[in-house]
Amino acid sequence: MTTGILGKKLGMAQVFDTQGRVIPVTVIEAGPCTVIQRKTAQNDGYDAVQIGFQQMRAHRVGKPMLGHFQKAGKGAFRALQEIRLEGSDPLEVGSEIKVDIFKEGDVVDVMGHTKGRGFAGVIKRWNFKGGRATHGSMFHRAPGSIGASAYPSRVIKNMKMAGHLGNERVTILNLRVVGVQPEKNLLLVRGAVPGAKNSLVYVRPAVKKQGN
Amino acid sequence: MAMSLLQDVEAAQLRKDLPPFHVGDTVRVFSRIREGEKERVQYFEGIVIGFHRNGIATTFKVRKESYGVGVERTYPIHSPLLERIEVKKKGDVRRAKLFYLRGVSGKRARIREKKDWLSKKGPVVPSEGVAESAADAAPPADTPKE
Fold first, then answer.
1. Interchain pair B79, A22: CB under 8 A
2. pLDDT confidence bin for A134, thresholds 50/70/90
């Protein structure tokens, strides 16, 4: 069953494995998620489920969304995610997806929005080297030349320049599940995950997993 | 709420069986070492020169002088590889990090022994230190070089 789950990044910690080695982990409070909508090949042209995470009060939701939530009859949710399914799947509207869809040793992908860094210069955004700070250097953090003159008489596309950095959706592939605590809805994933603490993340089984 | 869940994850692995020790104490740290197939216990004795406190990631640094060369080791205090820790001597120090020991040797590298003035039993000597307590004014670590 290929499904995923929405969660909240709680922060990072470390655990010791059986050989006493330190493993850095990100702790994710994953689910429980409720199936809000079931899309079928006959109705929608493809099979999918829409899941909701983090219950919220119904009066905080606009009328169009309220009607959508009422079809499932499980209250309103803060975050929604559609997940494609392979063929028909027994998942019913209103049923719950919990963190126990994963187990220790699984390989997962985690998506999240990175921390926004605003308008960033080329040193921060593209790891340019920058110039000397002192001794009369007049070249500090500027990008330098961005191209030649008469030919080509324009700046080539995708030139690395200053601009907005962060706050984009990023997928980290192939993270190992170090632990699952279904009673607390906790998922421990090896390594770092995009986003700030308390930000929304989506965890799915790895799509590009190599080997076994 | 969120913070406490994070601490829950750590709490299960925290070690509470180790004796309390502080900066300035002379300790003997027994750690399990794996060599190929075999596992053995190795100890490292020296002065605790600092703690880096960070929940489950807390570490402490032990320094000793070995054949005239300063050696420092950093141990994760909650590591399951730590067999046990013996507190050999309690030190009386006035700062949290004893990194100044790196730059001094001989008499300057001494650390006063902590005395327990309240219990009227004389200085606290944790283990096998009856003979040492009489000479607690003597330098705890190495003898000064000529």
1. yes
2. very high
